[in-house]
Structures are given as structure tokens and as C-alpha cells.
Amino acid sequence: MTTRGQTQQFDKAAFKAAVQKHLVTTYAQTVETADTRSWYLAVGRALAEISTGSLLETEKFVAESNARSVNYLSLEFLIGRLTGNNLISMGLYEDVSGAVEELGLNLSDLLEEERDPALGNGGLGRLAACFMDSLAAQEYPAVGYGLHYEYGLFRQSFENGRQVEAPDAWRGIEGYPWEVLRPELNQTVGLYGRVESYINEDGENCRRWVPALNVEGVAWDLPLIGYDNKSVYPLRLWECRSPAPFNLARFNDGDYVGAQYGQLEAGNVTKVLYPNDNHDQGKALRLMQQYFHCACSVADILRRHFAAGHKIEDFAKLEAIQLNDTHPTIAIPELMRILLDEQNLDWDAAWAICSKTFAYTNHTLLPEALETWSEALISEMLPRHMEIIFEINHRFMSLVEKKWPGNNEIKRKLSIIEEGPQRMVRMANLCVVSTYAVNGVAALHSELVKRDLFPEFHELFPGRLHNVTNGVTPRRWVKYCNPGLSALISEKVGDDWPKKLEKIAGLEKFADDKAFQKRYMAVKKENKQRLANWVEENMGIELDTDAIFDIQIKRLHEYKRQHLNLVHILSLYHRLINEPTFDMHPRVFFFGAKAAPGYALAKDIIFAINKVAEKVNNDPRLGGKLKVVFIPDYRVSLAEILFPAADVSEQISTAGKEASGTGNMKFALNGALTIGTMDGANVEMREEVGDENIFIFGLLVDEVQKLLEEGYDPYRYYHADSLLRASLDLLETDEFTPGKPGQLAAIRHNLLEGGDPYLVLADFADYAKTHEKIDAEYRDQENWARKAILNTALMSKFSSDRSIRDYANNIWNLKPVSKK
Ligand code: 26Q
Question: Which residues contact 364 (CB under 8 A, 6 or more apart)?
């Protein structure tokens, strides 16, 4: 059996010896005492050892190639479990499975011991993980830079239906087997303090920052293993530690130490991932996280650049820095500061480098998610950066004055500084002004970025705004998580589809093949059974796999409209009980969603779904036709069971609100049919599969905007539609909360008196009607199989390999460097 790159030989005896060595020397266990967890750790360490060697080799090889690299800066990398996926990338799955069997172990059991590294909230963090996978698979030189949070996204449980959060110590007490400490890469990061003027040897007036305190950045590398090649890139995660000995003299310097320093412990900075998704809170510790991340990362990029023997003048030629949303924006003034104050470049030279190095991806149009930081906070924590931001803005305002002379309205709108009771720094504006490329994440979203978010910037900087439609890695999201479907695909189109997803189009010609349809649906059924078993074992709910499995999994947010799904479920409940002639194919509605801990209405929606589930699942009047399952603690490893098991994928955001979505792509690739609005990437999915193979409903972006402008009145829909009215009114009763009426009323209140900001009522009737169509179409199983197959066959556009090629060709100007 050959391995990666079809050259290395797997030495089974040596591997088994390495596992046993780690069991004893790293984890202090004997073969006799070791439990499954210890064996998993030992196997993980033995594998990590191999990949660390390749990582160091790749770093050297890339440095010597003098090729341009991309540095992907993101506060989040939602990587999911690494062991199983890495085995697939290394081509070692079968070999290692055989080796551990000889040690009396089962590989699947070992893999289940791994905790998800949940270093991200949702879509943005998972996208970063898919992108790193595609960079490595295609050998585009890259480094991922993130934070080594001690606690990842909180763990969710339900108590009497309500979300309860617990800390997520993802590394366990033993540490994570795949991470390796890189002590030689440590960085020192300054905070607070003052800026001073001085005159240098050449008699020039200069500025420099004198921080009040320093913290230390420690680098942990995780290996990003290229699928079927020999490249391994680092995902470099920074941990914040207080330096020893702590500089108490400076810390206590009365001039610069404010009261807030009491709360600052260096160890706090990377303690926990902020659990907000699409919402900005403006907390000082978050700004500190962002700066710590950027300072360590920019310094490390410069270190590599100089270590490879390059000059600062060539920086932009050799390094691209991609900003994953505005969260790492402070990297821009940080690089300016280093170029000006440490490399002694003049402004124009420094600006020329910066503005050719950075590019920015926008992931949202929601106003509450656009980051702003108060000038006061930045001035205090990062005084030199604030000066630089003012200077960038000053020069930018001159440019605006040239373009629109005397137009103060436009200046107010475009300024990086928002005037008001307290001045705020608009991070998105700073990004658009300072980067050479800005992109949205789906065609529709990118159009709205041009038309609604940054129209004047588009005029001022023609050609700067781009689209790169998101994608997902077919390695994790088909090959690894859906082995049954993978085998079927390989049989028909060959086995190189995981790196050339265009190949799956070869399935199209089997869409009408009855024998193939049967086998495809048999795989779907096995995957539904795997999910049903999980639900039975973990939740004690029994499910019928002949039912339609209808799934909505994503963060809980009003704009994503889990409550539209809920109101529809209530309407089915109402009809099953009150309409004797109403018939429906049995259906299970699955939900998986975490709510930001401070988002009250999102938590109310979780509570309501759980209460409705309790009642519905035990109501004999429904004849088993309707089940509702809220999967607790939704995470990547559960997504790997859910996507392959879905018949129907719920992508029902209000048009214009979901920038792209990526779950939509994972579902369709695994053969689920989408019910969705004309939003985000749904629009492009429809173009690929054709209108007959997707269930589109609801208002379009322009109709949404028009309705809101004209004055939207949810009561109009409430009064006009008796089914909608009956469904909503159920929320006022004690039907689902016996003896306690009104416990679910907050949702109804939000939709009626609250004005229904996301137009749930306006879209309800079309949504319900479209679900009836799904019910009818599912009953014709050959017809359904055909559509499901076509969804798999026609999804190749949504491979993250294509997204990365788009970035490489249109934004980064990057060429693959193939390691021999
Ligand atoms: C901001 C400030 C302070 C604390 C947290 C945040 C924060 C954190 C995470 C703001 C936003 C996020 C995450 C946003 C996100 O996941 N957006 C999603 O990105 C996906 C990938 O492009 C898209 O597919 C989704 O449509 C988009 O919602």
C-alpha cells in the first residue's frame, strides 16, 4: 500500500512502536492500563510526529522557492476534529486502521474520543478552515494565523428546554495531540502607554510608541495537511502569556497605568472565544485580542520575510495578507507603524507597501455586525495606532474632497471616523481605504456590497470590489463524512473527485438510471439510520427513517428565521389535529443551533422549539407523522452526521441578509433538496441545479426593501390568513407549557407588536405552500432520487478549491508550489 504522493511506504511496525512509545512516555500509561482515550492520544501524537516533520520541510521548501505566499488572518478557525481527516489527507486511513487493529483497537472508536476544537462561532470560522484545507490541497503557499483560545465556543445543554452554557476546554488536561509548541517563534506585544517624539541620527523628527506593558505571544502550530500531496502548512495560533519577570516598575508607572489595568492579566487575553456571531459588542478585551492576534502575526510574517533574506521593499511582492472580515483590521496600522517607526520608511513608501499587501473579505451587511471602536479606547490601548488611523483618514479625506469638492455629506459618510457624542472608528471603512481588494462572499452579496454598503467607494476606487463565492471542502464534507456516497461516486466517475470536484458532473447521466437511483437512496437511508441511532442513543427519541428528514442547522439568529420554520411546524400541528382530511408524509424536523449567550430572543426561540418538540413527539393524535428534534451542542462533528442524512435543507433567511451560507452547499452536495429564499449562495445553487431541482420561495431582495420602505404591517398577514393566525395564537396558550400559558409569547409579540423585522409573516404563506410541494414530490421516490442525484452532480462550483483558485488568480496573484 502506497501513501501520500504515492511514494512513501507505510512502516506498520514502526508506527505501532511509535504509538506504544507515546502511550508510555507521553501519557504515562501501559498497554494494560490504557483506556480508549489514552490510545487515541498516543495514535494522534504518533501521527502528528510525521506531519511535524513535513511541516518543517515545507516551510523550508517554500522559503527557498521565493514564491508569493498568502497569510490568512482570522480570529476564528472552526477546524473540527483533525485525526480522521488528516488520515485521509495522508492516505493512511486503511493502513492505520489495520495497525491499530493489531493492537486490539478499533479506529472508529479512537476517533470518537477526539473533542472538537471549536475555535470559531459558525460560518466565518468554518470557511477559514475549508480555505486552509484547499490551500494545502492545491499547494498554494499559505500560513493561517489565529488565536489559541483556552476555551472554544461554549458547550450547550438544555435544562427544561432552555440553553445552558458551559466552558469548552477543548484541549483536555493532556493537551491536544496535533498541536506543537514553537518556542523559537515567541513575540512580545506592547499595550497602552504613550507616544513620544524624538530626533534620529539623521536629524529627522520621528515618533515612537512607548508601551506601558508587554505581554508575550507563544506560537502553537497545527498541521494543515495537503490531500494526496507532500505539503503541510502551519495553522499558527497565538497564546497570550505574561512575560516573566513581569515588569512591575513600568506596570505601576502612574502616568500610564489606568484603573482598568487591574482587570488585565496577560493570561486573560486568549482565555475565551467571544461567542457572538454577527454582532459587535465593543468590549475592550476583544480589541486587545484583535491587536494581540495582529501584532504577533504581522511580526511573524516580517520575521519569515527577513529570514528568507528579502528586503522590506519586496514585502508586498512576496506576501499577501487576507483579512477575514474586519476583526484583524488593526494589522493595517500595525504594519504601518513598524514600517514608519521601526523600518524608518517615509509615509508614501510605507503606504505603498501596505496598500498592496492587504485584502479584505466582507461577510455581512447587517448594521449591528459592522465593527466600530471608540476613538477613546483605541487611543488609550494603542495610542500610536490611533495617530496613524487619523493620518490615513486625513489623506483619504483630501482624496474625497478632490472627487466631490465641497461635499461634506459624502465626507461624513465615508470618513473612517464617525462623528457623534463619542467618535468611533469604522473598521470596514478603514479596510476599504487601505486594501487593494475587497470581496463579498456570494454573487448577490457582492452586488449588494457595491450597491448598498459601499456605493461611493465603488465609484472612488473602481475595480477594487470583487466577488468570490464561498465553497466547502469536498474532503471533509463528502469523502470523510459520507463514505457510502463517496464509494458510489468513485465507482462512477473515478476516485480523483475529492481534488477535482468537476468530475462529479459525471453523475448527471445516471440521474435517470433506476438501478443507480436505488443504490443512491440506499446510501441516504443508511445515513438516516446512522443519525436516527445517534438520536435514540443520546436523546431517547425513536425515529422512522421513512420519514422526510428536514434539517435546519446554523447559528440561531432572527435573520436566519428558525422561527419561520417553527411557525410552519405549528401550522402542521394545527392541521393534523383540526383538519380530518389533512394528510402529510411523516416528517422529522431537526434543529441544531447555539444562541449567543446575551441574545434573549434567540434563546426564547430555542426554548419554544424544545417545548413544541416535547409535546409533538408524545402526542398520540399526530399518529407519528410529526417529530421535532433539537440536537444539543451542535458542532462540526455532529454536522458530519447531519448533512449526509438530510432529505430537505432549510435555507430560509430573509432575502438580502445571509451573505452566502455554506451549510446550504454541504447539504446539496450530500443529496438534500433545498427549500430556500433567493438569498446568499442559494441564488447561484439554483443556477447550477435548475429551478426544478430546488424549492425557492419568498420575497426577493428588492421586494423586501420596498415592503419595508412602504411600511410593513405584520397584522395585515395575521388577519388575512387564518392558518397563520391559529399557528401564532398557539404560542399564547399553555398547549406546549402545561399550566403556564404565555411562556412562549415573546416570539408572537416580536412578530406582531415588534414589527417582525425579518418579515416572517410576509413569507409564511409561500413557505407553507412550498413545503406542500415538497411533500408531494417526496412521495414519488424515483422523482426525488433523480433530483437528489442532480444536486450532488451539479454542485462542483461550490468546492472551496474553486474559491481558493478565484482568490489566487484574481486577488492574491499566487501560484502553486509543488513539493516533490
Ligand atoms: C464581532 C465583534 C466582536 C465579537 C464578535 C464578532 C463577530 C464574530 C463572528 C462577528 C461576526 C462573526 C461571524 C460572522 C459569520 O459567520 N458570518 C457568516 O460568514 C459566512 C462565511 O462567509 C457566510 O456564509 C454567512 O452568510 C455569514 O453570516
Answer: 278, 325, 370, 659
Looking at the fold, whether 545 and 488 belong to one and the same domain comes out as: yes
What does the alpha-carbon distance between residue 314 and residue 510 come to, in Å, rounded to a whole number? Answer: 52
Domain co-membership, 615 together with 658:
yes
Predicted local confidence at residue 6, as pLDDT: 42
pLDDT of residue 317: 98
With bands split at pLDDT 50, 70 and 90, how would you rate the model's confidence at 266?
low
Range(s) of the domain holding residue 504 = 474-554+567-592+607-798
Give the closest residue to 699 by CA, choosing from 564, 593, 794: 564
Tell me: do 178 and 311 sit in the same domain: yes
- H-helix or E-strand spanning residue 789: helix 781-793
Q: Residue 255: is its pLDDT beyond 80?
A: no
Give percent above pLDDT 90 in the chain: 94
554 is an active site residue = yes
Residue nearest to atom 13 of ligand 1 (CA): 277
Q: CB of 492 within 8 A of CB of 507?
A: yes
Sign of the alpha-carbon torsion through 197, 200, 203, 207: negative
- Is residue 311 annotated as part of the catalytic site, yes or no? no
Indicate which atom in ligand 1 lies nearest the CA of residue 361: 22
Each residue's pLDDT tens digit, 547-601: 999 999 999 999 999 999 999 999 999 999 999 999 999 999 999 999 999 999 9
Q: What integer is the mean pLDDT of 778-796? A: 98
Residue 242, C-beta contacts closer than 8 angstroms, at least 6 positions apart? 215, 216, 265, 266, 267
**Whether residue 141 is found in the same domain as residue 32:** no
Q: What is the pLDDT of residue 278?
A: 77
Instruction: Say how many domains are in the chain.
Output: 3
Q: 283 pLDDT band (50/70/90 cuts)?
A: confident
Distance (Å) from CA 263 to ligand 1 centroid:
27
Q: Is 156 a domain residue?
A: yes
Residue with grid cell 462572499, as numbered in its chain: 441
- On whether both 444 and 532 belong to a single domain, the answer is no
> 5 CA to middle of ligand 1, Å?
36
H/E element, 448? helix 443-448
**What pLDDT, on a 0 to 100 scale, did the predictor assign at position 457?**
98
Residue 591 near residue 736 (C-beta atoms within 8 A):
no
- Report cis status (omega within 30 of 0) of the bond before 367: no
- 815 CA → ligand 1 middle, Å: 29
Ligand 1 atom closest to 371 (CA) = 2
Same domain, yes or no, for 704 and 785?
yes
555 classed as catalytic: yes
Measured in Å, residue 25 CA sits from the centre of ligand 1 at 42
89 plus 200 within the same structural domain: no
Please indicate, yes or no, if residue 413 is contained in any of the structural domains.
Answer: no
Amino acid residing at 86: N
Residues with C-beta less than 6 Å from any ligand 1 atom:
121-124, 127, 274, 276-278, 280-281, 286, 363-364, 369, 371, 441, 470, 658-662, 680
> For residue 277, how far is its CA from the centre of ligand 1 (angstroms)?
5
CATH code of 759's domain? 3.40.50.2000
Q: Are residues 450 and 539 in the same domain?
A: no
Look at residue 411 and tell me if it is in a domain. no
Helix axes 562-578, 722-729, angle to 10 degrees: 100
User: Which of these is catalytic: 363, 528, 625, 787?
Assistant: 363
pTM: predicted TM-score of the whole model, two decimal places? 0.97
| Mean predicted confidence (pLDDT) in 652-661 | 98
Q: Which of 499, 503, 666, 819 is catalytic?
A: 666
Is residue 111, in this structure, part of any structural domain at all? yes
Query: Per-residue confidence at 2, pLDDT binned at 50, 70, 90?
Result: very low
Q: Which of 270, 326, 435, 662 is catalytic?
A: 662
